[in-house]
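forwarding from the other thread:

> can someone predict this with adenosine-5'-triphosphate?

sure thing
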Amino acid sequence: MTERPSDHLRLRTQPSFLEPLVANKRVVVCCGAGGVGKTTTSAALGLAGALAGRRVLVLTIDPARRLAEAMGIPETSRAPARIDPERLARAGADGAGELHAWMLNPAVVFEGMVRRLTTDEARVQQILDNRLYKHISGMVAGMQEYTAAEALYTLYESGAYDLIVLDTPPSRNALEFLEAPRKLSAFLDERIINVFLPKKGGILKAASGLIENVFTRIFGPGFYGELQGFLDAFSGMFGSMRAHSEAVRTLLTSEEATFVLVTSPEPSALVEANFFQAKIEALGVPFAGYVLNRSWAYTRGYASPELIEMGDAPSPELASGMAKLRQLAVEERRRADRDRKLLTGLKSRTASGHALATPHLGGAIEDLAGLVDLARNLVQTEELPPSSRPPPSVR
Amino acid sequence: MTTVLSTLGNLRAVLVTGKGGVGKTTVTASIARMLAASGRRVLCGETAVDDQTTSPLGAALGVEGKVGEDPTPAGPNLDVVILQATRGHRAFLRDALKVNLLADAALRSAAIRRFLMAAPSFPEMGMLYRVLELVRLRLSDGSPRYHTVVLDLPATGHALALAQIPSSLLRILPGGPIVEAVKEGLGLIMDPAQTGSVVVTLPETLPVSEALELADGIRKHQLPLAAVVANRVPYDPFSAAEKASVLGHVKSAGPTLGVRSLERIERSRAALARLAEARGDVPMFVVHDSWAEGAALPAELAVSLAGGVP
Ligand SMILES: Nc1ncnc2c1ncn2[C@@H]1O[C@H](COP(=O)(O)OP(=O)(O)OP(=O)(O)O)[C@@H](O)[C@H]1O
Ligand SMILES: Nc1ncnc2c1ncn2[C@@H]1O[C@H](COP(=O)(O)OP(=O)(O)OP(=O)(O)O)[C@@H](O)[C@H]1O
Ligand SMILES: [Mg+2]
Ligand SMILES: [Mg+2]
């Protein structure tokens, strides 16, 4: 039952595939199923980039409030904010480059885009003042994905950052912005928009008539006209938005970008990971490999409770407690075996053979120091000696 | 004694919600199995995702055939269905326009279909209308086709999106029959005698914080909160004295196998205590972590849900 070191030596003697990525790429996109740890991994990769001396921006979407707190990201902010270097130093990430973070605010990004793409100030006001505009980011399917891409591209072009790590929302549509611009969103489709616009003849006119009839009967009088006015004002932007989404696509399919797929060891997350890998490959974007997050794969450096001396006359609690601990150790080994097998499976699924496991950090993940640990785990060859963390204690 | 059956068994609709990956699908399937085993006629539903080819809920229930937008059998007293917003839109258009031909023509129009799918709250509204339609189904003897509909809500558009329908819709729409339809649907989901939300969480610090935020949001929107479920709770075989002496003893040995699991047990206890304190008088059910996978998992959990909490 004792640990054979060779079991896990294989795991981390190879350099991490993520290390060159955070050191050299301009854009790293983290995607994966809901709740697997995309946001946490994005933050840790950003930290790893900063530890490598780069100016990094982590663009996150809807982070758990505590993570935002741990990193010191303001919850509503109109622009990226730098994480206080003091705070980083206290968390053990001193001598780092710069770490910036922004909780993406679709409304702000969208307004910026309206201003950039619409030269006529009167028209800008017409759009921004429209009652429907206030709902536009919810109104246009795929708009959240589009604003993420828009923000990414604008911030990339600004040249203010060496590396941008993009977190994605927990949606199968998260990669939608990469699909053919025609599919960018249902609403950007001019053939659809045109039906709503006034001054059309022929088939379109018949369709418009039907729509007007139906809309008026369902939504009451007035709404149809309001919608028309809005789409009319807005439609001039669609061409530019499509062109822009082409540019984003070019960036994300280039050598400068790479995609990391995050998964957890749960069967359902692995099924979703399959779906995402197929999608990434179909989109032709560079796929770096897998992160198997929250895994128990590493047991290196852990002592077996069997080998711990209990002395000559252990107290009854210690004797029975240690017996129970040995039982937990058996389960941990079982989990470790399962996760190592999963890791091997993930490696064989990718052309590059790249997959690595990050440990389940338990409660340690809740502060910045825990994230720094995770960052080191992502890029270092050797697993961090667990002894560098404070000793376990019962709360 | 409060049981899952006494808490949820008399409801017409149970909305299962929570963050991604916490076990919503598993818990939905387990509750549905348990209610069905107790003799209720149950429909288990999940909301459709774009380009969905598989049904996680169907898989959790061990359904081998395809699960579609019409109910399919998943066992004694139990059917499963994928809820399509467009089905609800059609039912709604037919009711609102009162002319089936016009409703069908409207739905053949790509522009209208897309508008209904893209505009805020409309997909949820379609879903709600579809649920209403399924809840209202009757057998020839007049009794409900399904006593209870158990819904697995997506992590992103969780229960709050349903609750936000009135405010976001009414901000955009001046009036018309749609307002009436929405009110009717809300009459169902806001009535604690008919509907209850179940918030699922993992017994860890951050997930519990998120679950409590979600529960607050649900209460704020006046959706009835029926229960919280702590899922994947590890068994705790230790006495307090055993724990203290083990942790004291292994400290000098450095990192030790088993200790991380012991710490997880401790975090879980602390998380459950926080949950228990914050839930008020909403019942809390504990579901244990299991090694079972696939359809065997909800089958196993359904048996443990049949028990109760004091
Ligand atoms: N390595 C880890 N060890 C322990 N806990 C972790 C780890 N990674 C993530 N977690 C925890 O798992 C939960 C989900 O993580 P996170 O929010 O990063 O996932 P996500 O994929 O971004 O979720 P969503 O899909 O909801 O956006 C959080 O409570 C987080 O603290
Ligand atoms: N009590 C449990 N014991 C063991 N494994 C569990 C338990 N509950 C859930 N799981 C596992 O955890 C994973 C996630 O569960 P599930 O798919 O039910 O979550 P979900 O909340 O529906 O996820 P998503 O947000 O992706 O829809 C699954 O692989 C499931 O088998
Ligand atoms: Mg996230
Ligand atoms: Mg699910």
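The beta strands of chain B are 2-3, 13-17, 42-47, 72-75, 78-83, 148-152, 195-201, 225-233, 284-288, 308-309. thats all i got for now
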